[in-house]
Every structure is written in structure tokens, then in C-alpha cells.
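Our preliminary data section would be incomplete without showing what the modeling component actually yields. Below, a chain of 202 amino acids is followed by its predicted structure, encoded as C-alpha cells that our downstream tools consume directly.
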Amino acid sequence: MENAVNYPGAEKDIARLKEKASLSEEAFGRILDIISDEEIKYELKFNDIKEKDIEYMKKMGVLIKSLKNEVADKFYEHLLKFNKTRNILLSKEGLLEHLKITQAAYFEGLFDGIYDRKYFIYRLFVGFAHHSYGVTPSMYIGAYNNYLTIIWGLLEEELERGKINLNEISEFYRSVKKIIMLDEYLALETYYSNPFTTICPW
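Predicted structure:
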């Protein structure tokens, strides 16, 4: 299983995370703990993410990665139905369009099957950015639930087309739920840090 490995630009990304999020030394220390080799291995094991889950994620990616823009449209279509999330999405000119692009990139990365230090760092970036936009934990959790609903719908469509069978749809969904829960944990960890300025690594 690919896990906590250094990658080109890791130190730069970590430094930018501390600077842009205006983290105190204590909060930054917590972030370093989260992206340590030991903690990454622990979280993967704690969330029961195994080799077979990674293989299932890759297989799903082959089937549905091309639908990334459709997923982003459905995701934000749902959020625009509610006043609180709609007010955030429309608070700045071009924000919604920008988020759709980054959401499509997030969807692709979700199914790459590589859950290493870089993956953890960029999920923290996502959490800090959304917190800075005013997204509350309840909004975040609800949005992830909607995301799972969208993915389940895509898998059902693949089942109807005969691309996957009943056993595969169950295994695929179980695996993607594990990864989504990992992402949710990483995002919510950012809400325990210091107040920070608006950031976006993209």
C-alpha cells in the first residue's frame, strides 16, 4: 500500500499550509502529527482501508472519472437549493465556477488510489479553504453525504449498463465510503486550528 512518502515540493506545501492558514505553533504541530508517517498509516488502518479498497477505487476511477464535471454540477446544484450554502457559493464573483473546477479535480484524485502524505496535505488545504469561506461542520458533513448519494447513483447507472455486477457495486460503495470518511476526518481536523485567512492552493 502506498502511504506516507515524501514527494517533490512537500516541504514547500507544508510551509505554505502554515503561512496561509495562520497556524499557531501548537496548531501547526498538530498538523505535522496528522501528516506523519505513523499517523497516516494509523488512519488508513483505523478506517480499514486495505489493498482491495485501493484496487476497487482505481477500478471505479476507470468507470466514472470521466463524469467529474457532471458530478460537480450535481453537487453544487444540490447546495444551491439551500440558503446558507447558496449565500456562501454566491458571495464572490466567480467562486462557484472556481469551486466546480476544483471539485472536478478532487473527484479525480479520490479515485487515483494513492493515499499518501500529498493526499493528506491537499485534503487539509481543502478543509482550511472551506472553513475560511464560512462552511460550518454541519454543512461539510451534509455535503459529504450528498456526495456519497451522487456516487451511488453513478454506480447504479453502471450496474444498469452491465458494466458492474451486484457484488461489485456493494464492494465499490463500501470502499469509496471509507475514503470519503477519511477525507471528512481530515477536513474537520482543520476546524480545530487557529483562525486563518482565506486560502486556496490551486
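The chain has one domain: 10-192. The first helix runs from residue 10 to 20. Preliminary results of this kind motivate Aim 1 of the renewal.
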